[in-house]
Design goal:
One of its GO terms (molecular function) is L-ascorbic acid binding. With about 290 residues, the protein is α+β, with helices and mostly antiparallel strands. About 35% of the residues lie in helices and about 20% in strands. The strands form three sheets. A six-stranded antiparallel sheet has the order 1-2-9-5-12-3. The protein has a four-stranded antiparallel sheet with strand order 4-10-7-8, with no helix packed on it. The protein has a two-stranded antiparallel ribbon with strand order 6-11. Strand 1 and strand 2 form a beta hairpin.
Length: about 290
Amino acid sequence: MTDDRRREVHKELEKELERRRGHFAAARQRRAFIAANYRPLHPNVYTLRDEFVDPRWIELAELARTHRSKDALLEAAAGVVRQRPRGVFAFPALTPRFCELMREELDHFERSDMPRAHPNTMNKNGLLLYELGMYDELLTPLLERYVSPVAAALFDGGEREMANGSDSLDHHRSFTVRYEPEGAGKDVDLAYHFDDAEMTLNVNLGGHFEGGELLFGGLKSDGDEKHSARYPHFHREGIAILHRGSHCHEALPVDSGKRTNLIMWCRSSQVRIRYCAMCGRDKITTSKIE
């Protein structure tokens, strides 16, 4: 890398750092304002309760703690976990009652005049659940008790992706997305992409809709031939899909109704200290070479 290019990269990084500092500060301000001024419709939905979690996921997490390999867990949980395509696992996660309460709470918030931001750079419609105050008592415990043990077992060994972080998930970025038929300012579909996460948990919250299937291709490190095929996943209320963040996918258009999903981008500090979250390059060896 030349000196001019190094200076150019440093300027780009400084600009991005300033953007992120401002982004995080604004999110904290919105969260504080919402905490002080918003009255939840269903306060109980902000705390994880056993009746919110499908009993089959509770049992799956217990099995994952004792069956620490994918094959052993899939055999022990036969009929509960479905894998299709390879590396994309579907299983019952959240109860109909939780999904109903969560949909009503989200609708209630969106009808309010509370401040909000886009859930990510690709979606306009949905909510950042950190700003609603849903992390400490609801989503972080969900990650620790249920997502982490299942991910560690189902993705043991990393297979085709180095340092996938499935056994060291310790934080998350969680949000909802909402898709509706064409209209001003609405998200209809989502282009082919990968997530800024080591693992992604995606749960449909139900409601009435048609279309909106997910299509999975290859991992971001795969060659072009792996990305030419697509494997569909059809949403069902309360059913989670768990996959690597690096597993590329897209969302087809919603034909009618409204599809709302809860997304958890599950992350590993251990991985992110060493590897670039987006390109996967080793920060240490790359810096030594360059």
